[in-house]
Design goal:
By secondary structure, this protein is an all-alpha fold. The protein has five helices and no strands.
Length: about 190
Amino acid sequence: MELDDLKKSWNLMDERLKDKELINEEDINKLIHKAGKGISDLSSFSTTVIVISALLILPFIVITLFMGFIDWFYSTVAILAFPAVAWDIYTNIYLRRTRVDEMPTVQVIARINRLYRWSVWESVAGIVFMLTFATLFFIDRQIWHLSTFAVLMFFVSWVIGIGVIYWLIQYKVINRLRDIRKNLKELKELKELE
C-alpha cells in the first residue's frame, strides 16, 4: 500500500516537472547581463549629465565671482546648482556600486527600486525648481513690459527647458529603470524556480 502511494506521488511529481519549463543557466546569465548593461548605460548617461552640468555651471561662477557681476538670479542658480550636481554624483556612485552579478538579487532589486523613487522625486523637484525660477525671473525682470514677442519667447524658452528636463528624467532615466526592474523581476522568478 505504501509502495502504491509512493508511486502515485512520484508520478504526480513527474507530471508537474514535465509541465514546468526547465530553468536554463543561459537564461539567467542573459537576464543578469541585460540588467547589468542597463545599469551601465544609465551610469554612463548620468556621467554625461554631470559633465554637461558642470560645464554649464562654470560660466555662472566665473561671471558671478570673478568678474564682479552680482546678479541675484544667476548667483542663486549657481549656488543651487552645486547641491543638484552633488546629488547627481551621489546617485551615479550609488548606481555604479549596484552589481547585478555580485549582489543578491533581492538587494539589487531594493537598490534599483530606491533609485527609481529618487528619480521620480528628482523629476518633480526639477520641474518645481524650473517653474519657480521662471516665475521669479519673470517678476524680477518685469518681462510683461517688453514686447509681445519677447514675452512669447520667454514662455517658449522656459517650456522647452522644462520639457527637456522632464524628457531627460522620464525617458532616459525612469524608463530605463523600469526595464531594469522588469529584468530583475524575471531574474528573481527564475532563481526562485531553481
